[in-house]
What does this fold into?
Amino acid sequence: MGNPVLDAVREIGPSIAARADEAEQAKRLPLDVVELMKPTGAFRMYVPDDLDGPGVTAWESLEVMEELAYHDGAAGWCSMIGSTTSLMSSFLPDPFATEIFGSRDAIGGGFAMPAARATPVDGGLRVSGRWSWGSGTQHCTWIGGGCLVVDEDGKPAPRADGLASPFVFFPPEEVEFIDNWDVSGLSGTGSGDYQVTDVFVPEGRWVQNGIDEPVRRNSWSRFSFYGLLACGVAACAVGIGRRAIDELVDLADTKKPQGSSRSLAHRSPIQADVAIAEAKLHSAWSFMNEAITSAWESSEAGHEQTIEQKRMLRLSATHATQSAAEVAELMYKAGGGAAVYKTSPLQKTFRDAYVATQHAMVAPRTFETHGRIRLGLETDTRFL
It folds into this structure.
């Protein structure tokens, strides 16, 4: 059957690439680029079939993110954020699931950590707070944020029904965006802070990640949220790394180092660097394919992933992200002086790739958790 979402983003890829510098300067995706991406389904790949989801597999979704990130890291990243947020469509009660994710124009986003405070009131919650890392929120149709349920004194106090840490959803007009996204890379993701002040959220317009039972039982509701999020980040990094290799190959054909009559392509160290970069990136991508295919087969068969499958998802994602950054750095160095100019895509891929390595799901420190499990040590696996 192929991957129709991938086919669609390949068609618009060059148009996205042409706007990448504009997105970086604006610190968000241009709205017409967002409109270009919406019909592909790339912002809502984890919406189930009964809510008119695009019908991709887990691996196919990563192919889409990787392809978008190849053209612009920010576009791939925003696809990843929108799609991972859309996992909640299987846990939201009706009519909110349909209202938030049922439209093909729907884009969700937000930061899941409970940075805000929610006070129980008649008919729902009143929420105030500020979140960081609001990737893509300025173009979202619904924006969420993690909260702690508190009492009148602001102290954590779960409701009698156990509601303690909901991820609540707001329409955009109730959200204030903070212009503080001044960063070294992935600037076009628009991942600045956002906040709400005493906003009413009606009963049930929320999900407690890792606690609530799914309303819709399907392959997505059985899939590891954190594993899929980590793999999405990694897919973006791999796309950026692939772009770095192609940019270096294009440059190497024509650039002659100062004092040399031969182009970069004819220099033995450059030839080795390109080969090493390709091997590193392809190996990492294959590891991810193996891990996510195994996990998806379990979900399709009606089972949740085992601890070992979750470990492989997270390990392959961290490895791929770090490998992609190493590839981008290798290609940046191979480009020589030409790579330092802002007109060179090599410096952008270098910056974007290393920002991706700082995401909490794939940061180098996560290797420790995966190693602890392999060594048989007692490990907290709740957020695996």
